[in-house]
Amino acid sequence: MTQTIFITGGGSGIGRATAVLFAGRGWRVGLADVDRAGLAATQALLPAGMAETYVMDVCDRDAWVASLDAFTGGGGLDVLFNNAGIGSGGPLAMTSFDEIDRVVAINLVGAINGAKIGHAYLKRTPGSCLLNTASASAIYGSSGLAPYSATKFGVRALTEALDGEWAAERIRVRSIIPSFIDTPLLNTATAATNRSIRETVTAAGMELTGVEAVAQAAWDAVHGERLHTYVGKTAHRMAFAARWMPGKLRKMMRGRRRG
């Protein structure tokens, strides 16, 4: 029987690369995004008949139900990939409340919506998996990315909480924790500066990780036993520093804001 994965943020970046990988290995893919053109572009990269698209905002709970019902035919789902997210950068004091609300709504509440609504479909398939996209910013609070970092900490916490809650139902819960990924999200301008997140990241000497590596990590996470899968050198270095050198990591974050 063909396995199924429903991917939010499927119109570009990590979502698109993951769709290509899973469809190429015989999975039927549901692609959700607010970007109709992006969805069509992703679908065009996949084998014929292997993908269905849904123009959907992860903040819209009715749209979640309608899209999952349509994709599953009211049946079960093997993987729900909570991947949709937006970037935000700059000093918190200079960030508008509208931007803060939007980041929290999409990155965190959207993931909670997907988990709560998706549960009914996942529990119909023993051994199913909820996969969440967190971030290296969920390892240690990142100065200059406070709202974004806070939402990704929330996604990590959601993963850990549901890993406990859903174990008895044989629903596996996993997260990928990537470094900064080379996607359009990094082109977002940072508050009170003329620089994009991409420029801020590269100026700090941190590498960008390709989306193909993240897609492979998503595959490994779905099929493996690790609760959190780190992707990219920065993520691994930050995880090591947070555990063994938290003082150095704190100093680095404080110094970043003085620079």
From TrEMBL:
List, for all copies, the residue spans of the domain called Ketoreductase: 3-174
Name it: SDR family oxidoreductase
GO MF terms here are:
oxidoreductase activity
Keyword Chloroplast found: no
Q: Does the keyword Iron apply?
A: no
What family is this?
Belongs to the short-chain dehydrogenases/reductases (SDR) family.
Q: Which UniProt keywords apply?
A: Oxidoreductase
Query: Which organism was this protein described from?
Result: Sphingomonas ginsenosidivorax
Q: Which InterPro entries match?
A: KR_dom (IPR057326), NAD(P)-bd_dom_sf (IPR036291), SDR_fam (IPR002347)
SMART domains, alphabetized: PKS_KR
